[in-house]
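Why run this: before we spend reagent on co-expression, it is cheaper to look at a predicted model of the complex and decide which construct boundaries make sense. The entries below are exactly what would go into the expression plan.
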Amino acid sequence: MKSLLALTTAMGAAHASSLVDICTDAYIKAALPAEDTFQGISMISGSVSTVLHSNVSISSSNFFPTATISYCDVTFNYTHIGRNDRVALTYWLPAPADFQNRFLTTGGEAYEINEGSGTSGSLPGGVMYGAVSGLTDGGFNGQSFDDVFLLANDTVDWQNTFMFGYQGIHEMMEIGRELTRNVYNTGEDKVYTYYQSCSEGGREGWSQAQRYGFDYDGIIVGAPAFRFAHQQINHLVPNVVTQTMNYYPPPCELEVIVNATIAACDPLDGRADGVIARSDLCKLHFNLTSLIGAPYYCAASSGGSGLGLGFSKRQSMGATPAQNGTVTAEAVQLVQTLLAGLKDSQGRQAYLYYQPGADFDDVETTYDSQTDSWSLSIDGNGGEFVARFLNLQDVSSLSSLDNVTYDTIRDWMQLGWTMYEDTLMTHNPDLSVLQQAGGKILHFHGEQDPSVPTASSVHYYEAVRKIMFPNETLNTSAAALGEFYRLYLVPGMAHCGTNSEQPNGPFPQTNMAVMIDWVENGVVPVTLNSTVLQGDNEGEHQQICAWPLRPLWSNNGTTMNCVFDQASYDTWIYDFDAYKLPLY
Ligand SMILES: *[C@@H]1O[C@H](CO)[C@@H](O)[C@H](O)[C@H]1NC(C)=O
Ligand SMILES: *[C@@H]1O[C@H](CO)[C@@H](O)[C@H](O)[C@H]1NC(C)=O
Ligand SMILES: *[C@@H]1O[C@H](CO)[C@@H](O)[C@H](O)[C@H]1NC(C)=O
Ligand SMILES: *[C@@H]1O[C@H](CO)[C@@H](O)[C@H](O)[C@H]1NC(C)=O
Ligand SMILES: *[C@@H]1O[C@H](CO)[C@@H](O)[C@H](O)[C@H]1NC(C)=O
Ligand SMILES: *[C@@H]1O[C@H](CO)[C@@H](O)[C@H](O)[C@H]1NC(C)=O
Ligand SMILES: *[C@@H]1O[C@H](CO)[C@@H](O)[C@H](O)[C@H]1NC(C)=O
Ligand SMILES: *[C@@H]1O[C@H](CO)[C@@H](O)[C@H](O)[C@H]1NC(C)=O
Ligand SMILES: *[C@@H]1O[C@H](CO)[C@@H](O)[C@H](O)[C@H]1NC(C)=O
Ligand SMILES: *[C@@H]1O[C@H](CO)[C@@H](O)[C@H](O)[C@H]1NC(C)=O
Ligand SMILES: *[C@@H]1O[C@H](CO)[C@@H](O)[C@H](O)[C@H]1NC(C)=O
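The model came back. Tokens follow.
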């Protein structure tokens, strides 16, 4: 409980009216949350620093449009009492005249807990809407979480793991919201509390929704890397499939399969624009076997990053020779095995995969110029997770996948699930607290994400629906859920970004404005506002359907309707019967 006394004590400073007035170390020090406001947390008042930025031009990003903003960049540290640690916070404060009683919480990507404090990070996306916007370093002193996860080989730093799992973001939000109240002297007025981030930041958003539902008015989560153990270890599945089949495709062979899939499946949604909006119809109607024998050619490349590399990826591709051949039956079988999702040796479903049309970034192979052949390459994300987070060794990846089978992968997933159920898994489907507090969740995911499977988001949505509205029909429960939690699959979209191979796809760039409208004005985003950000159709507005409805164009691709189709719906539904417990 925040006492009125704490508030008035902190408000010793005079009533401020301009950015210059509030942007001083002394003013911010006086506005810090009073001691004992938050359990176990103490501000380090001597660490406060302020820098005023006027009329800064912000370039358009995937998650916000262009803008010019002025703000006070405030940084300070706090400590956990008794731990003698330092957690560094950054808040951007809009001018009092621009402040609209909003606070935006932001998270990170990959193993970062924030997106950086530059103008290309996440903070402008709040300031331009009159929100104080904050980020935390989690106490990691500028390092990535994976670099501070182990204290030594075999010894986990659980405090850092809890901070990354959910605690760090929440503390930053609580401290920032209290600071906001004090700086702008909001009195009894509500400060609307938002969250917005993608990928790992999407997982962090869910960590807040699942644990602190009473604390947020609106949470925007993109392509969440939740069900973390499965998510990370799943990156190894393509490697193990190639090893099991003893077939290592040249990258060009997979690229031509992606191209042919896009060409064949683009029009199934009723609009021929080079964008797959219905990967479910692609699954139902596109016959991959028909590609056997199709020619492919790729020129030699000196390396660099591959096509469409997702934004949580760390690997880049080495030099590759010219590749000229025809699609083999093995390559088609490899792709069909992947699209079916991981199954153990008894045929039981252990996880799921990306949608057809998405890149095969994880299926990298390595070229050996001595033998002029392609061989196993171990995916860095998956290899690191097993080596560091399961084996607890301070190494960057696995050195081999010898003897690793589908059952090994399943067992690793089970082990990671058990080890990180309460920190990183982030898949609790009970959102009752958030629902009762009136919070809203806008969850979106690229239909063509090559790094976090789109169906992973659908699986969670379906788990929430069934846990919260048992005994109800799909229509009734989806309608009830849609009052506070809506999921949108974005046609053609890659991992938290536009897709260079499907440039005409729409992107939900105005999510923050949409969420504000939902929370503060009661405007339900029945469909999600979006814009084409590149390519021939740049600037075109589109609406994205809310799951379980799916887009279908008519009138020669000029009219879009959101429809329900049982056969398409069924392609998204998985029963993970490889495990004894239900996997939400
Ligand atoms: C604040 O924390 C950061 C990160 O740990 C540290 O580099 C900095 O020295 C701290 N500043 C003060 C004044 O304690
Ligand atoms: C920022 O822009 C506004 C409007 O153009 C102008 O009035 C103001 O002087 C500018 N501030 C600074 C510090 O340049
Ligand atoms: C796949 O399509 C892209 C254009 O999107 C093209 O640049 C590339 O060469 C094609 N790849 C192959 C193997 O045909
Ligand atoms: C898929 O295509 C192959 C080769 O063109 C053909 O033999 C097979 O019957 C097709 N399968 C289906 C289900 O249409
Ligand atoms: C690929 O190989 C075939 C058969 O050797 C040849 O006819 C064709 O010209 C080659 N294509 C390219 C682009 O080199
Ligand atoms: C930790 O273990 C790895 C091998 O698992 C080893 O390469 C590394 O040297 C060890 N680090 C230390 C500090 O002992
Ligand atoms: C793989 O299995 C073979 C045969 O059981 C065994 O000889 C070898 O040591 C195993 N390799 C690893 C890395 O466990
Ligand atoms: C669902 O149906 C079962 C069996 O009819 C019943 O026992 C249970 O109370 C129902 N649950 C809810 C939440 O209505
Ligand atoms: C469920 O809703 C969809 C689309 O809104 C509609 O087409 C369908 O008929 C409904 N099903 C039932 C059983 O009411
Ligand atoms: C929808 O997006 C367009 C730009 O594509 C923007 O102009 C409009 O304000 C957005 N509407 C809402 C409600 O955010
Ligand atoms: C259908 O749309 C395509 C692409 O926009 C256009 O080229 C074609 O002329 C249209 N066909 C008709 C019958 O309007």
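Residues 1-190 form one domain. The pocket of 2-acetamido-2-deoxy-beta-D-glucopyranose (ligand 6) is lined by residues 153, 393-395 (CB under 6 Å). Bring this page to Monday's planning discussion.
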